[in-house]
Automatic annotation (TrEMBL), chains A, B:
Protein name as it appears in the record: Riboflavin biosynthesis protein RibD
Residues binding substrate, per UniProt: 184, 200, 223, 319
UniProt lineage: Bacteria, Pseudomonadati, Pseudomonadota, Gammaproteobacteria, Pasteurellales
Gene Ontology terms for molecular function: 5-amino-6-(5-phosphoribosylamino)uracil reductase activity; diaminohydroxyphosphoribosylaminopyrimidine deaminase activity; zinc ion binding
NCBIfam families assigned to the protein according to its UniProt record, in alphabetical order: eubact_ribD
Amino acid sequence: MFNCMMTKELDLIYQELAYNLALKGKISCYPNPAVGCLIVKEGQIISLGYHKFAGTAHAERDAVEKLQQAYPDTWQEKIAHAHVYVTLEPCAHYGRTPPCANLLADCKVAKVTYLSADTTDKVNGKGVKILREAGVEVEFVPWQQCLNLNKDFFALQAQADLPFIKVKIGASLDSKIALPNGNSKWITSLQAREYVQALRWQSDAILTSAKTLIIDQAKYNVRYEQLPQEVKNYLAVKDLKQPKVVIFDNSFLLTGQEEIFKHHQSQNLIIVSQKEHPLANKIPELNFVVGYNSHQKQDLEKILQILKQEYALANVLVETGSSLTNFFLEQKLFSQLHYFMAPKILGSGVQALATQEKFTQLEQCLTLNLLYQINLNEDNLYLVYEQK
Amino acid sequence: MFNCMMTKELDLIYQELAYNLALKGKISCYPNPAVGCLIVKEGQIISLGYHKFAGTAHAERDAVEKLQQAYPDTWQEKIAHAHVYVTLEPCAHYGRTPPCANLLADCKVAKVTYLSADTTDKVNGKGVKILREAGVEVEFVPWQQCLNLNKDFFALQAQADLPFIKVKIGASLDSKIALPNGNSKWITSLQAREYVQALRWQSDAILTSAKTLIIDQAKYNVRYEQLPQEVKNYLAVKDLKQPKVVIFDNSFLLTGQEEIFKHHQSQNLIIVSQKEHPLANKIPELNFVVGYNSHQKQDLEKILQILKQEYALANVLVETGSSLTNFFLEQKLFSQLHYFMAPKILGSGVQALATQEKFTQLEQCLTLNLLYQINLNEDNLYLVYEQK
């Protein structure tokens, strides 16, 4: 129908639309990968869908169900011979939902274009095989952006010594996290803070320092009502799990009277100190990691290993003050930097990123890759980076 | 064909695609507005286009010509009764190209949806009128994003005392413009620097301080070969105009031997100082603005007025060191902030944004609106803000 040039251009547009759909589900679909799907028939977009929440329809099924709702009688006819664009290889396993590869094969679509490979054991080519055996043409157009969106998913599926570590920062355009007087309420927008609640909800643990926890009187819990609506649409209050909290306290600042002790059960708190902590006698239900100096890279690595191996913390959110945050970055002990940037200029105040080392050459600096970006209300940008 | 829900969703997708097309032309279409156009027939995207360069086809014509090329014999039949999405009201005036409103009417399209109003005298409803009189259905769906993209265009069409002032900053993620030793080559990517060349090319003048000019040995000229390819595709070397350079030099640092004097004709340089400048005798072809203290807001405003009224500088790019840059921001004497952000963490060094005032409340800080964003190579973000 189209000449070749236009076909290629449209192909790119469809791929980009599928990616944009995937991105819409990213904050809520955890721990599943974010996936978007577009169904095109004779040059018309006939349906679209994305994965919204673990246990609900995958992107392909979401798109098919949407078509079913729109055309209860004729959807089968409409989808037959269609071209499906999907950002990840269709799944081949019976999880909480039946496999998407079978669904698409049953729908008799003509062609499936997928944009990133699902290398996890459950899929890894099996989806493609099901489709091909059913006579569906399958095309793989590897698109790094689609992989970048799910690096956390793939990392968490793989074996690793250390937890997957997300460092979270909320800062102004000039990279300040507080005014000179310490005032930081609020630099980022309400929606940005809702996203931080979602990051907590996604995490096995939040990692912080006793100092920050005391200064901020931080609770480090997930407040259901403050979660993004996309999450609340599917998450029942009763299903909300609180993350554990890991507290670095070499100086024995914690007394047991802090806010955190009121909002978490003692067995969900893990206190890390070089020498035995005085609270060990006072609150024996607490967990302690003793013997490591968190100010040294090797010891910090060891602590993180213990958190992964002894406490099964696979996914840790570093949400703390500027010095510990910067230590994680400087030591390159992080998987991703989740940077919320508000369109404000504070002019002076506490710098978000002020590492100890003084570089003389730009090549020495930490360089990052932008994995994905979500534009939030009030022009706050949610930027997710990894080390280059 | 579609039920209502899907139609609405597709409408939004088409609008967004038209916007994305407009954005593609933003860096090269100056001084014209950036416009994107999508043509949809019976649910199929049949063509797309955008305005690339002043004097070349407008977005609507670009899309029509693309269709003509693809279907030399049947394009008229294809476009008849189509639905056109365009980010700005179709033009009604004969400029270097005939009016787009007439073109679309002649093509017998069924409907035109436009996403922002062209309030300039030449159009201002006339495009809509031409279309309606030809029996074309016209729908206005105001979309702030499309207006935001062309704020510079609309501001430059209007009367104003002051020039349109773009402040340019190239910084790291932690908002540093140089390492502690002053090394800043290069924080931003090659493409970001090409975009800065394009900003210079778009400007009537570059404004800087003698100090920065001397330290950086800056030439402040446009280097044709370093312009973005999008610009070079249409701009002939011979048509490249160099911006004037305005130099603030209260301390009489300029000797006439600096690089800048080798790369600009003297009559294109404007030197601003409080007292009469010693170079006035030495190089009489230079321009001088004397009697104002650029460190005071009222005087700075007066200087800018003179630049606009006496030197006809309507569009000024502030591209200078951190203290003058910050003074413009602090005094709110700017129209837009053009912020190039590289995914690097310098950790220490010269802060891009370090205003003098110390705030105690976040409400006192400068808050910005993000107008638009272009993602450049090497994950550099080009963010364009205005004051909220």
